[in-house]
Design a protein that fits this description.
single chain, mainly beta, 2 helices, 43% strand, globular
Length: 225
Amino acid sequence: MSKILWDKTGERLYETGVQQGVLYPQTGGLYPLGVAWNGLISVTESPSGAEPTPLYANNTKYLNLVSAEEFGATVEAYTYPEEFEVCDGSAEIAPGVKAGQQKRVPFGLSYKTALGNDTEGLEHGYKLHLVYGATAAPSEKGYVSINDSPEAITFSWELTTTPITIPGFKPSASITIDSTKVDAVKLATLEGILYGADATTDPVAEAIVARLPFPEELIEIMGTI
């Protein structure tokens, strides 16, 4: 085996940014319709759990029991899709009139982060993040008077998730796909599902509606994760 080398050309990797956020409100246990999330500022992933509980026997540590890991996140944005209102506990009681403190609809989320390196910069690639079974907690909204240094209001939500089944693996609420390590054609097929596609020149062809596929379908498309 050759000697380890650090910071080789092309291997100085970094990850940055967040873009192309898509919201998928849950309907009947599915995520049948995706809508663009404009004004997305940040997604802060906050896993929790996986904490060891030591057990002792014969005056020595016998083993560690590790608690289940959970996926959570904080989403910050300047605005949000109208479809997110039902996920944030709002319900329309009359045209243009919304009541708060209502049932919060679960949802899915996808977004991209850029992968850069020392030779290609941000053109190197990206990671595609998929989140399932998310629920948004009530958040603080600060409205202030407009002054000589106006700032746009930012909204923030704490997300908790419920894991879903992944064949052959433990249930999970998050999947990440690295564009530099998967087949480009398969990735394009997946993104056509996540983002939708316009109808072709064929007059009988229909546009593909954006939706969030479950892991079983994702594995079928990508071959493996």
